[in-house]
Each structure stands twice: as structure tokens, then as C-alpha cells.
Amino acid sequence: MTTAVTIFDTTLRDGTQGEGISLSVEDKLKITAKLDTLGVHYIEGGWPGSNDKDIEYFQRVQKLPLKHAKVTAFGSTRRRDTKPQDDINLNRIIESGVQVATIFGKSWDFHVTTALQTTLEENLAMIFDSVRYLRESGLEVIYDAEHFFDGYKHNPQYALQTISKAAEAGANWVVLCDTNGGTMPGEISEIVKTVKQTLSVPIGIHAHNDCELAVANSLAAVEAGARQVQGTTNGIGERCGNANLCSVIPNLQLKFNYRCISDEQLASLTSVARYISEIANVHLAVNQPFVGSAAFAHKGGIHVSAILKHPKTYEHIQPELIGNKQRVLVSELAGQSNLLFKAQELKLDISSEHAKTKDVINKIKQMEHQGYQFEGADASLELLLREAYGEVEEMFTLESFKIIVGKQSSDGVVSEAIVKLNVGGEPVFSAAEGNGPVNALDKALRSALEKFYPGIRHIHLSDYKVRVIDEADATAAKVRVLIETTSPEHTWSTVGVSENIIEASWEALIDSIRYALISGYAK
Predict the structure, then answer these.
(1) For 353-369, what is the HEC assignment?
(2) What is the pLDDT along the chain (523 residues), one digit of tens a residue?
(3) CB 32 within 8 A of CB 64
(4) pTM, to two decimals
(5) φ, ψ at 399 (rounded to 5°)
(6) H/E/C letters for each residue in 283-298?
(7) How many Å apart are CA 382 and CA 173, to the nearest integer?
(8) Are residues 258 and 236 in contact, defined by beta-carbon separation less than 8 angstroms?
(9) How far is 3 from 227, CA to CA, in rounded Å?
């Protein structure tokens, strides 16, 4: 029988302690709903005793029709020399309306005497009283043993006493925290095994990533007997972050054969990770394991030649299992295998013997030498391939464009773009103002084409990046512009290169619109 592991997501609490991360109440509610669809078991919503935003969140989250997750409120044990019923933080947890409380207490004697400045006996009483009070108030209680592993290594007898007190008071879970993130996997395993022999209540693990071991430590803890894993989506969190649940879940489920969520929910992991990354305004690293866009991307010709024969040659799992997909990158390192694979994806009927294949490879290599990069601009690459094999219908052509940039004392700098196109033999003029020359061009181009292709109004430029290719040339240097465009259901990227930033931007803009029309995303 497959062993179940409970997933506890603390993105909304521990995750928001990461540098540069701030979530509104609306953001937190959206993330809660998305995590629920993923099938996580607990969502730690925040600390109702610390700020008004979290209080509002707990009021509003009760109206969400959650199907899988229990929302938990976070807090600490009672203050020293205070009765639990008089402690504001504990009462705020009860008043928040949650069914589950997650409270932390001190396991390390050094912290008790230095941070809390109280006695070891009083700390044990604080743990017992707080857990008992919340249990008597009808709540399920998850007790987080803060700094447990450091505490155990310094004074194992006292560390074990602290969690025994929580268990004695009725804690439903005891979670062992590697709060400083400095414990090694072997230590985690041995200590968890010892705790497992000591406690009768189920054990969890809460690992930080300061040594880049949070995922490894979480897996080691589960192998040693822990049955709950706490972490965050994409590993965000204080300092170096928390255990990344986007790696923990598939590793547990696909490598160790534990059961965390359903197979259908696992297949949504990539989309959930990317959605939460967008909401949190945190860049999702392309090489993030499992869910990154490059996690199953292949560039070297030998690799691609092999995966054409069988994906298992260079892929440790089927990417579809976690909602990702295999990608082949076409670049100056590409051989014919890369190009043939890409053509296969696009359903282009070509072979290595096709007369144009070698020409296309050489053209790509020449363009990359000039500064183009197609690894992050699949839409531009697709257009290039389709054009090479005569599969692109020209939907419009540029006659000319002009940009006027002027400064007015009242309005600051104003940009205006005038575009002249030919659409099916019909000349079209359009002008638009924007908050910059590229924005003005984008608006004028769309305005000119909307009459012929109304669906263009449903797509928008979602990202714009400029990279100077050779800084030694100073203001005369070539620049590479990468544009990301989004429709209600799709996202694609295009690239342009020139010594002139406006020309490079125009090239990427034109490719973006052409791709939308050819692919049917702007119908």
C-alpha cells in the first residue's frame, strides 16, 4: 500500500518573508484557490496576530469554496508569565475562524535563555499551555518546533522534552524545523529516526534552504519517518528560501512512490508554479527543476539526436506528468537533429535530405553570430522555419513608420508613432501616442490591423527586455530585444536585433503580431 505524505504550503506566510515579496489580500486569496486545486492539504494563510491584512484575509478566505485544503493560522506560544487565555496572539488565532492552528515554540535552550530570556521550565510550560488551550478551543494544532535540529545537537535531552510537552498537550502534529537551514541530510535522517521512536504523534519537517539542502533534507526526513512536509511554492521565503514544494512533491511521488496529491493534480504542477510566480511578481528561473521552461529543454545536437530515438535517453521523467513539456533549442550549437525535431513539432514535412535544411541551419548560425538568440524566442524561430519552407502567408507589409518624441513642460516626454501598412493591397495609416516610442509603435500597429483582424485587441505585450550585445561599442552597440506577448490562453516570445533599439523593437513587435495571426491566437 502506498504511504501518504501530507503537504503543508506556507507560501502565504513564510514565503512572504522573502526579500522583495509582498502579497495583497486579493493576491493571497487567488493563491489559496490555486493551491487548493493542486490538492495541498494545509495552506498557512498568515499570522492574524501580527497585521490587519492577515486579519482581513482570514475573514474573506472563509467564503472560498475550498475542496481539498484546510487553511491554518500561524502564531507563537503564549508570552512568558502570561495565561494562555490572556494571550492576544492565541486569541487572534481562535477568532480568525480557522479549524487548524500552527504555532511555534522554542526547542533550543540557547534561544530560550537568550531570545526569550526565560527559564527552560517556563518555556516547557508555555508550549504545553498554548497547545492545550488551542485544543480545548476545538482547533487542530500543528506544533512547529523552531530550531529543533540545532537544539537537538546542542542539548538533545531538552529538545526532546519540548516536543514531548507539545505531544502531551494534544498536538496533532509535531513538525521539526531546521530554521537556520544548516543541518545536513544525514543528520536530519538520524535525528528524525530518534524522534520517531520518542513520540507517538505524527512528525513533520520544515526545512530552510541556506545550504541549498531544503529539498534533500525534506526527502531525508520523510524517508526517516516524517509524514508531513512544509514548504513554499517555488521555494520562496526568508533568506535563501524554504523547501521548494514544486520539487518535493514530484520527487516524493515519482521517485519514492509516496502519495501526496492525485496524478491529475500533479499534472497541473507546472501551471500552478508559474501562476503563483506571476501573482507574487517573482521571476521563475528557467532552469528550476521540474517546472522551469528549460527543465526539459535540449540544445546539444547529440542530446537531441538521442531523444529523437527515445526521450528517456536524456529525461529522468516524462515532463507531461508534472504539466511541463519537452523543448528543443535551436542555436549555433544545433545540428540537423535539432532542426528536424523542431520541424516535427511544427508539423513541417522536411527531412535531413531536404535541400533547404542545411541552408536554414547556416542561416540560424549566421543570425546568432549577429546577436539573435532563438532559445527564448520560439515564435520568431517558428516564423523563420515556416518562411524557409514556404509555409507563411504574408498578411501585411510595412510601408513606413515614423516616431516623434518631444518634451512638453506640462506632460513630460511624449511619444507619437505613425505607421503605414499594406493589408491585402489596401494602404492603411494609423497614429498613436504612448508612454514611450515602443509603446506608441505597438499601439499604432494594433490600431492599423484591428479593422482586419479584430482578435488583436485580445492580445497584449506582457514583457519587454533589452540586452546590449557588445558593451564595448557603447552607444553604437547592437541590442537584442525580446518581447513576450500573451493572449487569454497562450504566451509566445519574439526577438529583434539591431544597432537601433527602435528597429530591433519593431522587428520583435512585427514577429509577435505575425505569429499571433498565423497561429490563430488573434482570431
Answers:
(1) CCHHHHHHHHHHHHHHH
(2) 789 999 999 999 999 999 989 999 999 999 999 999 999 999 999 999 778 889 999 999 999 999 999 999 999 999 999 999 999 999 999 999 999 999 999 999 999 999 999 999 999 999 999 999 999 999 999 999 999 999 999 999 999 999 999 999 999 999 999 999 999 999 999 999 999 999 999 999 999 999 999 999 999 999 999 999 999 999 999 999 999 999 999 999 999 999 999 999 999 999 999 889 888 888 788 899 999 988 998 776 677 678 778 888 989 999 999 999 887 766 555 556 666 666 666 666 666 556 677 777 777 778 877 887 776 778 888 888 888 777 677 888 888 999 998 876 666 778 899 999 998 889 999 999 888 888 899 999 989 998 888 888 888 888 888 888 776 666 667 888 988 888 877 888 899 999 888 999 999 999 999 988 888 877 6
(3) yes
(4) 0.76
(5) -90, -50
(6) CCCCCCCCCCCCCCEE
(7) 52
(8) no
(9) 9
**Nearest alpha carbon to residue 42 among 260, 241, 339:** 260
| Alpha-carbon span 9 to 26, nearest angstrom | 18
Enumerate the domain spans of the chain.
6-261, 297-388, 397-519
Q: Where are the alpha helices (DSSP H) in 378-428?
A: 378-388
Of 247, 238, 299, 237, the C-alpha closest to 270 is 247
Question: 6-261: what CATH class?
Answer: alpha beta
Taking the CA atoms of 401, 407, 408 and 411 in sequence, report the sign of the dihedral they define. Answer: positive
Residue type at 144 in one-letter notation: D
Tell me the angle at which helices 437-450 and 501-519 cross, rounded to the nearest 10 degrees: 30
**CA dist list (Å): 174 to 162, 192, 374:** 10, 11, 50
The answer for residues whose C-beta is within 8 angstroms of residue 389's C-beta and 6 or more apart is 343, 348, 350, 354, 356
**Placement of cell 506544533 in the chain:** 143
C-alpha cell at position 136: 480545548
Superfamily of domain 397-519 in CATH is Alpha-isopropylmalate synthase LeuA, regulatory domain (3.30.160.270)
Write the single-letter amino acid at 202.
P
Distance CA 314, CA 305 (A): 10
Residue type, 264: E
